[in-house]
Write a structure and sequence with these properties.
Layout (H helix, E strand, L loop, with lengths): L1 H6 L2 E9 L2 H14 L5 E3 L6 E11 L3 H8 L9 E3 L4 E3 L7 E7 L1 H16 L13 E7 L26 E2 L3 E8 L6 E9 L4 H4 L1
Antiparallel strand pairs: 1-3, 1-9, 2-7, 4-6, 4-8, 5-6, 6-7, 9-10
């Protein structure tokens, strides 16, 4: 059995909330001016998302079953509000990435439900740290070739413009495959679920 598993193709998988097109377009416009420091590598438009569960390497033959486990018929699109101030992670002079906090109790509840189903089906072991809803907008380049030390950011990222301080609803839950490249990770959507909205919550 162990030899069979080793021979089967593996895929680096994660589940994430995709962004509405208008929110994505606004973030891309903001990235162009707010993340101008040469130490930053801006996340590409297609890669902007809110990660819910990082599954790591899984057997490709299990992709359909993983999607079936994660895509609960009772899931609803959560209301999300992006925090205005970008933060470095980890905090300090040399973070490895820049993120926007995505304030949302509904996203936390949705993530918990998805995680529970994946655990029940044996595809995931929960992390010890609590889930943190956020949106990665840039990664920090290495200080030098072959160095693992992040470069120092000298120009602080600008906050989000006022018109982006609003709630939005990500209506697609996507199972992504991550392809690791020298130029950065590229993501391929393997399966997706359209999340309905509760009209009364928007009134």
């Amino acid at each position: 059995m162990a030899k069979e598993r080793l021979k089967s193709p593996r895929a680096r998988l994660f589940l994430a909330l995709d962004l509405p097109q208008d929110v994505r377009a606004g973030l891309v416009d903001w990235q162009r001016t707010a993340l101008s420091d040469p130490a930053l590598r801006v996340v590409r438009p297609a890669a902007l998302h809110i990660t819910l569960v990082f599954l790591g390497y899984q057997s490709e033959k299990d992709v359909r079953e993983i999607a079936k486990a994660a895509f609960d018929a009772d899931l609803r699109a959560p209301a999300v509000e992006l925090h205005a101030e970008p933060i470095g992670v980890p905090r300090g002079k040399r973070p490895r990435l820049i993120a926007l906090e995505a304030n949302s109790d509904q996203t936390i509840a949705l993530q918990k439900r998805v995680e529970e189903r994946l655990v029940e089906e044996g595809f995931y072991e929960p992390e010890k740290r609590p889930f943190w809803p956020h949106l990665t907008v840039a990664r920090v380049k290495a200080e030098a070739p072959r160095s693992r030390k992040p470069a120092q950011i000298r120009t602080e990222p600008h906050p989000l413009p006022e018109h982006m301080f609003r709630f939005f609803r990500p209506t697609r839950l996507v199972l992504f495959k991550s392809h690791l490249r020298r130029t950065g990770a590229e993501y391929e959507a393997l399966a997706e679920l359209e999340l309905p909205t509760d009209r009364e919550d928007d009134d």
